[in-house]
Specification:
Length: about 280
């Protein structure tokens, strides 16, 4: 009877590594529906084998060869689950240093949340994350993922809040939007680099110091109370006003009807072509 290698692990495990010594030419491996398997011999990794019963060796062709029934070899098997998802918590080890896009105030923000992933491309996952380290386990995997995650989070968060003009004091109301952007960017990264599918990604909270919140609020007050002189009468005009409260001058941008150049609200002639502004 042929020697049979079977999966003996738990379906909840992301991957299980097993070894078989002195397998003969007729040896076979049985792969359950829930898994794929990689065969490793002398440091070389096979393509993933799907569910079913497979010959481990080929007498003439194939990845692993044994020419005679009396030959034998040792083979490692990495059974990788197609369904198991690995949940993990994440958090920025030190606050992100960034600038509030509305007020320009420099602040520090700590983020934390949770994510879940599964293996989508077994061979890439093995080569990039597991490899020849016989002691590689889930804890090591989480540390590697967390390290890569932190390098990707800061630029995506900064870009999102700038693109959407989100003040950091309003970050809690926009967690879902930022989470979706991070999931998309980090999902592409994990798929390309590690063969992983990012199933979920959530920001639970953003931590901003009271001092930074107060600095943002002070700057908001300054901007709200800021005034600029009216170009016609010189009176102070609150920032964002459409008309001067003293003389009624429209403060909307004007454009020259002749050349299209932008001119000041009180301009009588175009500074580009000299045409009279109506």
């Amino acid at each position: 009877m042929a020697e049979i290698v079977k999966f003996n692990g738990s379906n909840a495990d992301l991957f299980v590594r097993e070894s078989a010594d002195k397998l003969h030419a007729a040896a076979q491996v049985i792969v359950p529906e829930t898994h794929t398997v990689l065969l490793i011999k002398d440091g070389t990794v096979s393509e993933a084998l799907g569910a079913g019963r497979h010959d481990i060796f080929d007498t003439e062709n194939g990845f692993l060869r044994l020419k005679k029934d009396s030959d034998c070899a040792s083979v490692d098997f990495v059974f990788i689950s197609k369904t198991a998802k690995l949940p993990m918590l994440w958090g920025t080890p030190t606050p992100l240093t960034t600038r509030d896009p509305i007020t320009g105030v420099h602040i520090r923000v700590g983020l934390n949340g949770e994510l879940e992933f599964r293996v989508a491309t077994p061979k890439k996952f093995y080569l990039e994350l597991v490899g020849a380290d016989a002691e590689y386990n889930v804890d090591k995997l989480k540390k590697r993922i967390l390290s890569r995650l932190m390098s990707a989070i800061e630029p995506v968060v900064a870009q999102t809040v700038n693109d959407e003009h989100i003040c950091y004091t309003d970050f809690a109301m926009n967690k879902q939007l930022v989470s979706e952007r991070l999931k998309s960017k980090i999902g592409d990264l994990f798929a390309a680099e590690y063969g992983l599918e990012l199933c979920s990604f959530v920001i639970n909270s953003a931590v901003i110091s009271d001092a930074d919140i107060m600095a943002i609020e002070r700057k908001r007050d300054e901007l709200a109370n800021a005034v600029t002189p009216c170009p016609a009468c010189g009176s102070g005009v609150p920032t964002g006003s459409k008309f001067c409260p003293e003389c009624g001058l429209s403060l909307a941008a004007k454009f020259c009807t002749e050349c299209g150049a932008k001119v000041g609200p009180a301009a009588k002639f175009c500074s580009e072509c000299g045409k009279k502004i109506k």
